[in-house]
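Hi! If you just cloned this repository, the fastest way to understand the data is to look at a raw example. We've pasted two of them here, unedited. The first protein comes first, obviously.
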Amino acid sequence: MKLIFLYQELKMSTLQIRRLKAFGTQIYDDAARNLNLLRTIENTLDALDSRYERLCQENEAADRYIKLLREHDLPESSGETDLISLFENTRDLVGATYEKFSQKHLCAVNAPELCDDDGVVEAYAVLLTELASLHDKLNTLCWIIGEQDADKDETLPGEFSSADDLFAAMGV
């Protein structure tokens, strides 16, 4: 008889069992969500770091070409590649990429599940700085090449009193 009484004392009510299960489920869900969040943060940081490294290399290359173009003129082009258009198109793509990552940066800033120690917001900010720098350097390359092209252009002899006279002399 004493054994049955002890068993009944240890026996949990249905409500207590439900609460215990709910507690276990909550802890499990929180732990799984946190692990997934940490995995996502790590993957995001890895991807941003990889992209940052590539951008640093591209910025260094742009610096070298800017220096080279400032010291030397481009050789005569065979007309196969329009460098200005190439760099303008690339600059526009970099600008679009900047906008995309600006939006992601803003999302990271406003994400309640992220904290400063995660480094995601800072990683986006550093990446945006590199993107802006590359955009400016591509613009500088376009400007330098355009100036060199303009310096090589032949001037038309004579003076023109109207745009129509100028276009006629140019053969347009």
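Ok, and the second one:
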Amino acid sequence: MSTQRHAPPEPPSTTIDAEEVVTIDRDQTPDRWRYTCPYGHTDWDRTNNHAWCPACRQLNESGFDVDPEHYEVLDKKREVMIPWEQLRLE
């Protein structure tokens, strides 16, 4: 039985104010669901200077044009992108 994969939705083009800094506690469930990769996946991890998403990697391996390395995180509540430089991860 094969499962059909659908392309993820396009992320919003709006970003937060340049002076704003957002603190995320990835150990807290609300933050894990609110702040996602640009395509809405909750299982991203921080790496050197960006976020890496294993779900996006799987989509890429399935033939979708999705990069698993992200330099922005999606705030699903506000529907804005947060640049990696403006994130503080606890």
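That's it. A detail worth noticing about the second one: The first helix runs from residue 29 to 34.
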